[in-house]
Give the backbone structure.
Amino acid sequence: MNFIKVLVRNMSQTKKWEPLKKVGIIGVPFEKGQKKYGVSVAPAAMRSSGLIEQLEEIDGLDIKDYGDIDVGSFEEPVNVDNMAHLPLVSDCNRKLSERVAKILKDGRVAVTIGGDHSIGVGTVDGHYSVNNDMILIWVDAHADINTNKTSDSGSVHGMPVALLVKELSDYWPYLPTMDWQVPKFSIKNLGYIGLRSVDKYERLAIEKYNVPAFAMEDVEEYGIKKSIHHVLQILDPEGTKPIHVSFDIDSLDALEAPSTGTPVRGGLSLREAINLMEIVHSTGRLRAIDLVEINPALGNEVDRRRTIEAGLTVLKAALGFSRRGTAPRNISDLPIQTHNNN
């Protein structure tokens, strides 16, 4: 039998968990992990576009908004080469880690709205502090596993995975202000979906540690359903571990989400992204999701609206929105219709 078919069959036989019905929202208006203005306004733009209201429409979902992370503006210079705004990145992520941990301890799914992808350091660190058996699905056009020595840009939004995984800790110099964050997460619990712009060092790291990485050519060959089932089966064959999804909007094709800082053509369709998140939701084990890199300052009004709507749709799919509609709880809820035969 085909290997992929075996994986899908095994996934269907694992224990079904019940998805959490409580959600905590965090906004992170942070953009110093990259160079373009605008990604910091995404949390406000998402809220004003009906984030809370649309999530509340999902049957049985209890939403609590935990507000925004207080993002500082003053930073003392530090002696680290090719790593822009490290003190601000560190301060934001430290606060975010604490907030994510609180939401999880409150029994809620942590939904974090960025901000650039450097905030993945804080979300994953906070999640790991509560669930140290978690697995991480990084949905992105980019692998974000550069260090300051391998990055071309020096932007930290291309480094969060390398900062998180303990296997790469020896490749970093001492990082002033980052003493609060000790890399404990194992790269063995990481999987990628949607890659199509991977640097040489990143590819070397992925191959060296045998990270399950479904690039777009793999998604095209196997389809999104088999791709995510494969990643989940490799990372969690018993189907028992909490799941963290870090979703960069640039994982979508640039036609689906044009208002982002590093768009790459040839990405996921919105329908594929919806199906991906529906499958993760169906496991019942989703405990944290990040949505990052929406930049309302880029593009025209149509671009902005299209990108924000795509982000909202992805979140709704992750949290239980059904494209089939919501069935009535009782047959008595159905309207009684009478017919006049005269």
Observations:
- The chain has a mean pLDDT of 93.
